[in-house]
Amino acid sequence: MVGLSIGEKHFIQGGIPQDLRSDGRKWLTYRPISIATGNIPQANGLARVKIGATDVIASVKAELGKPTPFQPV
């Protein structure tokens, strides 16, 4: 994990009394959030979460099958 430089710390600390974050938002303003499910028909389960510019997709694909002696349950 990379630490902050002294200049970055001063910049962030200077924004606290001004109620500003480094990206211009106020301290209690959240980034836009959206959640979607089932966007990929081939997946049995899917969720997509976007928070600001961060986009995360998680999916599950499952198939039922009979266990074999070489692949027990």
TrEMBL record:
Entry protein name: Uncharacterized protein
Taxon lineage: Eukaryota, Viridiplantae, Streptophyta, Embryophyta, Tracheophyta
Native species: Vaccinium darrowii
